[in-house]
Amino acid sequence: MAYRSIALVIIAFLFFGDLLAADKLRALILDGQNNHEWPKTTPILRSILEYSGRFTVDVVTSPRSGESLDSFRPDFSKYNVVVSNYNGDLWPESVRTAFAKYVEDGGGFVSVHAANNAFPEWAEYNEMIGVGGWKGRDEESGPYLRLRGGKFVRDESTGRGGHHGTQHDFVMETRDPDHPIMRGLPPRWMHAKDELYDSLRGPAKNLTVLGSALSTKETNGSGEHEPLLMAIHYGNGRVFHTAVGHSPHAMTCVGFHVTLARGAEWAATRNVTLTKLPHDFPTADMPSRRDLPAKPDAEGWVNLFNGKDLSGWRQVNGTAKYSVEDGVIVGTTNEGSPNSFLCTTNYYGNFELKLEVKVDTQLNSGIQVRSNSFRGFRDYRVHGYQVEIATNGTAGYIWDEAGNRGWLTKNRNDPAARAAFKDGEWNRYRVIFQGDSLKTWVNDVSVANIKDDVTAAGFIGLQVHGIKRGTGPYQVRWRNLVLREL
Ligand code: ZN
User: Fold this and answer.
1) Which of 289, 325, 389, 427 has a 20 to 30 Å separation from 118 between CA atoms?
2) 130 CA to middle of ligand 1, Å?
3) What is the mean pLDDT of the segment spanning 242-258?
4) 257 CA distance to ligand 1 middle (Å)
5) CATH numbers and ranges of domains, the chain
6) 13: confidence class by pLDDT, cuts 50, 70, 90
């Protein structure tokens, strides 16, 4: 009986697993020619779609500019959505015909940034993208879209199509909060430094502006609200047009991640099931970036630190120096600086974290977990749970950094716990936060084991404590930082 139950469970699991795989939408990314860094941005587009859990992704890369495109024959019909990261030579007629028919017949299409520069001479393509820029576009390409009285209207005045000012962070404003792609997103959020395309023009038929941003004269822009996120109906198909995403940096914007995945899902299916708003979605006055999530290994562990540089981390709060030496993150005090934190750009809620740390005897340090930094709390002061790093017997206990609750571990008298941390040596930390259960170990000795539910998620941060004038410099080192989400 037991065997039979197990067999049934295994069969059920396999079947369910197959269903999940079959359930995923198939996306095709096109690249190979672009005046932008497509070899860097295609992997980001791919990761965003794959990590949404909703897509499997293939990439077809064209021959280089000027070479024959005879070998470029993507089979659009195999895909639910085609994502273009392509801005180059005109496709062969058979490919253009196949693509127009694919969208006309109900396929999904996502145009990313400079893909709207492509193909000014191809009428169907310009209807799909709605508006585009450069390459000779002008009043004959179609109108500008201008915000007048709260609505985007067609402006037929003469002039070139396509321009941008200097790159900067800018506020994206939701224009159609009821559209499935935008539902539940804030009315305004700070998009990470990017090119703000202005003065795009095109047929603009069956087009809904979902999001726009003010292109200011001060940034050498148009002084107009520019449509940057758009939904277009073409035949039975749907097009999501995102005019942002100039660089890998811009594509790390969490707003870009969310709108791209939602837009691709809408283009593929008419619906959006990716409705959960992530913890780290940007606010109206602060951008939020997320580096490429590392691929978890078979057991779900990801390296938080690549051993080479600090990508995936950002420094907040102080001016201590963080560097990488021989696969180790080294934090060095800077006299006069407040507490400094090197924080993950990603946020984590329930997780197991393991790392090794070595600290100078005189220096206090700590590991922030489920921590936050925003303007509304003491002007971005890092705050939240801190797992203590210190040589005075308190290592591994949990402190409320910058809060008013002090030590959250009330009992700090266990002799084994107080002796767990070895001065002058590498020490192994293990931290498990799951729901309200907060547990730590130092060198396999259980230290903290408490219940607390004040903060559900946040970043991981490595502290270099401020020091008294006339002391230091002191150092703290971290290595082998791995985390798995629970
Ligand atoms: Zn660009």
Assistant:
1) 289
2) 18
3) 95
4) 17
5) 2-269 (3.40.50.880), 302-485 (2.60.120.560)
6) very low
